[in-house]
Amino acid sequence: MKRYGLLLCTIVISLNALAWKPVLVGHRGCNIGVENTIEAFANGVDIYHYDGLECDVRVTADDNYVISHDEFTTRLGGTLMVAAATLEELRAEKYVQQRGDSVYTGHICTVEEFLDLCIEKDVFPILELKWSNGINNNDMSKFRGLAMLVRRKRLTDRVIFLTSMRDCHEFIRNNYPEFQSQWLCNANWEKHWQWCQLWHIMPSISMGNFDQATVQMFNAMSLPVACWTVDKVEDCVNACKMGAYMVTTNKLVRDSLPEMPEPQLCTYTRPVPVDLGKKGPDETISLTMGQELFVDAVKHGSVGIGYYLDCDTTFFHVSYDIGELPRNVMPGGDKQRMRYTLRPRHAGTTVVTEIKLFRGDEDRVPHTVVVN
Q: Looking at residue 327, which CATH number applies to its domain?
C-alpha cells in the first residue's frame, strides 16, 4: 500500500518504535533536472523514490494549466510572462538550469502531463496554487477547470492543494470539500492556527519555524504537520522527532534516513452539522469548533428568500450556496433552495443569532449558540 494513505486524516496512525520514516515529497520534482519539468518529476520517483511530487500551478493566457514557480520564465532562460503567453509559446522555450556541477535542459510541463506521470508512477500529487489568472485570493473563477481535470484523472482522494493564500483555501473548502488542503506557512501560523482549526486545513510549515509543542497542538486538532524544504538528514530527523509526518525535499534519499518512532496522530471524525431549522427558539444549540450550523432557505415566489440570516460575523464565518433546483423549476423562480452555513470562529463563546422570516411575518426568532 502506497504511503499516500497516511495523508487521510481519518486514518489512525499507530506508534511503532523505530520502524518508521516520513512521507517524502519531491520539491518541484527533484534536483536532477530543470525544476518543475517532466524529467525532474520522473527522476524524483525513479531515482529518489519519493512518495509524492510537488509542483507550482499557473494559468496561461489561453487558459491552460502549466507548471512554473515564477511569474516570468527568465530565471530559467526564457523571456515570457506565463499569464500573458499561450501554451504554444511557452512550449517553444528551452529552459536551462545549473544545479550543483550539472547543467540541465527542459521544457515547460502542463498540469495534465504532471498528473499523468503521478498516475503512471503511483505517487500522490501536490498542486501549489501560485497567484495567477483565476486562481488567487481575489479571483478563483478558473479553479473549476483545474478541479475537473483532477476529477477526470480520478485523483480526487489523492491530490493535495497547497497554497499560502487563505481565501483560496476557504473557496476550496466551501465548493470542493472533497479535496485535501495544506496551508503553506512559516512563523505566521502562530497568528492563524485557529483559522486552520476552523477550516480543518493541515499546515505545511517551513523548517525552523515550529517545535514539538507546535506539532502536538496541531495533532490534537487532527491536523498533521508537514514541513518544507529540507535537504539535510539531520534537519529531517529533527523535524520528525518533533512530530512532522511529511517532508518536502530536493534531494534527500530515503535510505540515508534512520528509522524513527512514528508520530501518533488523532483520529478525525467530521462533526455532524446542526440543522438550525429544526431547533426551537428557546433551545440552546451547542457546537464544537469545526462543527457547522446550517439553515436551508426556500424562495417563495415574489416574497423573496424564505429566511434572512442575521448574526454577528465576529463569531461566525457565514457562507451560502444555491442548491440544486427541483425538476422543472427555472432558476430564480419559486421554491429555489439556498443553504446558509455558519462555522464558529472562536471556542468558548455564547452568542445569539437571529433568523428573520419573510413569509408575511417580520418576527425575529433568536437562537442561543454555545461554542465549546
A: 2.60.40.2020
